[in-house]
Design brief:
The chain is α/β, with parallel strands linked by helices. The protein contains 8 helices and 7 strands, in the order E-H-E-H-E-H-E-H-H-E-H-E-H-H-E. It has a 7-stranded parallel beta sheet, sandwiched between helices. The structure holds NADP nicotinamide-adenine-dinucleotide phosphate.
Length: 243
């Protein structure tokens, strides 16, 4: 069988690891991008190589143009054909509006919109070389329904939602571009019991999401949804349905 590569950004932990694992189980070889989670990527590499998949790890800080370009350069050196890019890397940073300085704002834009924009642009020839390429953006339900103290985060994820639609239109008919919008998936470690209970009370399915829940939606968009493009699937246990 010909090798089909999937690039997953932020693959060294949590959702990114789950997405890379699920794609590997569907037969894709994995380019696992990381910044600091090199150890996580090596554990993932060992696991996926055990399944017979090829795994390459690329380390790059994609908050900078140099890091984005470096990732593109190194992915090109690995393959001239790319089936999937999952733009998963993200920064979930709480900051009241009055404390968000230009540096924090720019970092959000860089990781959530510029990196997906320029990494996809840089790898367009490789995507076009695959028979049915697919891009998935990991957005957030907060791109449509913001939460207080995350304005820079919500604005940048809203940009990523529009990038999904813009590229779905422009890169059709060959390349499909979709998104998944997680709700509450894997509570941050610093959430205490009371905070967790407060979040769970607002989720109709009454549990936090798992990385595998998000990964299943990504795999659906990549492998089982050939007539779907420009769409964002909420993976939020129903949270975005209620007031
Ligand atoms: N968890 C949720 O409940 C939830 C909800 C809605 C949306 N999301 C979205 O889902 C995605 C993954 O969420 P998560 O909870 O798994 O996030 P996470 O645990 O905070 O992990 C973020 C990932 O992004 C990478 N990253 C951050 N800044 C980077 C940079 N400058 N350069 C390169 N990589 C960078 C990190 O890489 P390293 O660790 O290698 O540095 C890490 O793998 C994010 O886009 C997030 O916004 C998550």
């Amino acid at each position: 069988m010909t090798s089909r590569w999937a690039l997953v950004t932020g693959a060294g932990k949590r959702l990114g690891t789950g997405i890379a694992r699920a794609l590997a189980h569907r037969g894709f070889d994995i380019i696992a991008h990381v910044n600091e989670s090199l150890r996580g990527a090596e554990v993932l590499r060992a696991e996926l190589e055990g399944l017979g998949r090829r795994v390459e790890v690329i380390r790059a800080d994609i908050a900078t143009a140099e890091g984005q370009d470096d990732l593109v350069r190194r992915a090109k050196a690995l393959t001239n054909s790319l089936a999937v890019i999952v733009h998963n890397a993200g920064i979930f940073e709480r900051k009241p509006f009055h404390e968000i300085d230009r540096e924090a704002y720019a970092r959000m834009q860089a990781v959530h919109t510029e990196a997906p924009f320029f990494i996809t642009q840089g790898l367009l020839a490789e995507l076009r070389a695959d028979p049915s390429p697919c891009i998935v953006h990991v957005t957030d339900i907060a791109a449509e329904r913001p939460i207080a103290a995350y304005a820079h985060y919500a604005v940048s994820k809203a940009g990523l939602v529009m990038l999904t639609r813009a590229l779905a239109v422009e890169l059709a008919p060959h390349i499909r571009v979709n998104g998944v919008a997680p709700g509450t998936v894997l509570f941050p470690d610093d959430f205490d019991a009371e905070t967790r209970a407060r979040f769970l009370a607002r989720i109709p399915l009454r549990r936090e999401g798992r990385a595998a829940d998000v990964a299943a939606a990504v795999v659906f968009l990549v492998a089982d949804a050939p007539y779907v493009t420009g769409h964002i699937i909420a993976v939020d246990g129903g949270r975005s349905c209620s007031l």
